[in-house]
Amino acid sequence: MIKNKFIVIEGLEGAGKTHACTYVKKILKKHNIKNVILVRQPGSTPVSEEIRKIIKTYYTEKITKKTELLLIYAARMQLVETIIKPALKRGDWVISDRHDLSSLAYQGGGLGISENMINQLKNLLLKDFIPDLTLYLDVTPEIGLKRAFKRNTLDRIENRSLKFFKKTRKSYLNNVKFDKKVIKIDANLDIKNVNQNIKKQLLKWLQKQST
Fold first, then answer.
1. How far apart are the C-alpha atoms of 97 and 40, rounded to whole Å?
2. Terminal CA-to-CA distance of the chain, rounded, Å?
3. Quick check: 171 and 110 in contact, CB under 8 A?
4. 65: which of 100, 116, 173, 190 is 20 to 30 A away, CA to CA?
5. pTM
6. Whether the Cβ atoms of residue 78 and residue 47 lie closer than 8 Å to each other
7. Is the peptide bond before 42 cis (omega within 30 degrees of 0)?
8. pLDDT tens readout for residues 40-97
9. Burial of 149 (0-12, 13-18, 19+ CB in 10 A)
10. Separation CA 105–CA 167 (nearest Å)
């Protein structure tokens, strides 16, 4: 029996993270892993959902870059401390739509906050709490934003410039390149091929965990 794990799905808008979270849960259940919870960041607790609304909403008052970063970490810590860690302690598996890699990509790469500052914040708050596996769904901003626009009206984050998302993707690619706990999935493909790749990589990873 494989010990319970913390799995994160990462990527730009339109990468298919929400679908991937559900699909990974389905694969795990087929392999007799029954206790799986899904969460999203920011969000998934009453407090974190309220912070999510602030982050995503347009205001006449400008939300500064560092304020955005701190709001995201406030929501993240509330979720980690009240939902994720207790679930892992119970023996449940947790699948999260985003985690701290998003902060390095969006607020670091996209907004230009120094990665050193973000890493200091991460180390201070999260310490050695890291995902066991991250599936990074790599999509070009052009394709991702086109999908996001079809889905609904764009929020404050989604409505940022193409240049912002190109810098965000570049940061993702730089940060996942040498991380052995990250598996990169080509999310530019159609949903059938993306699913096949997720399943193939996840089963290979599960096999390693059982040996």
1. 4
2. 10
3. yes
4. 173
5. 0.96
6. yes
7. yes
8. 999 999 999 999 999 999 888 999 999 999 999 999 999 999 999 999 999 999 999 9
9. middle
10. 8
